[in-house]
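thoughts on these tokens:
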Amino acid sequence: MSLASPPYALHYWPTPNGHKITMLLEELGQPYEIHPVNISAGDQFKPEFLAIAPNNRMPALVDPAPADGGEPLSLFESGAILMYLAEKHGAFLPADLRGRKAVLEWLFWQVGGLGPMAGQNHHFGIYAPEKIPYAIERYVKETNRLYGVLDRRLALVPFVAGEAYTIADMAIYPWIVPWERQQQRLADFPHLSRWFAEVAARPATVRAYAVAQTEPFSGRSAVTEAGKKLLFGQTAASVTGRP
């Protein structure tokens, strides 16, 4: 009788990038333990976290039983974590050349495009101390363009990389969830809306988002002014300790 796999250690806070990883772990049915990283309280600067996430950003993952049989393996960057888990467990990332190519295209489209642009949309529209009309308009329009790209793609295929649900869908979905905050209208994108509803209804998605309602996340409040300084005032000194 084989022993159960030890749980992954997921260093997490309920943000779009955090949700990506819980979505995949739930789809895989793999055990994992949550290690909260309160980014508004500065947990991302703790030495023990920087040891596994040198970019002082979550999520990060520690695999206690990597396939090579070696020491526990740590990973940072959500896209890299998605690829690692999909490859290790042989799921949600096709093995064939063309299928894999399509998934990686849309995964990198999210990490290099949708995520950063929507993130700036959130920043200038919600968090910036000064409302700069040009910046707000710039990122709202670019987010809108990217929604249009996704809608056009989903008019042709059921999921973003083709016929099957993959890590590309899991990477993109959490960045569409806050569409209202991004000043978008989901109803303007019928194919995107169809896909969004299907992903939202998946049992693993429901379970992943339920994690954000558990302690210590359920009682979290809005970002404080002190939290904003931690999140948006970082320089090299934040991670090196040098002036």
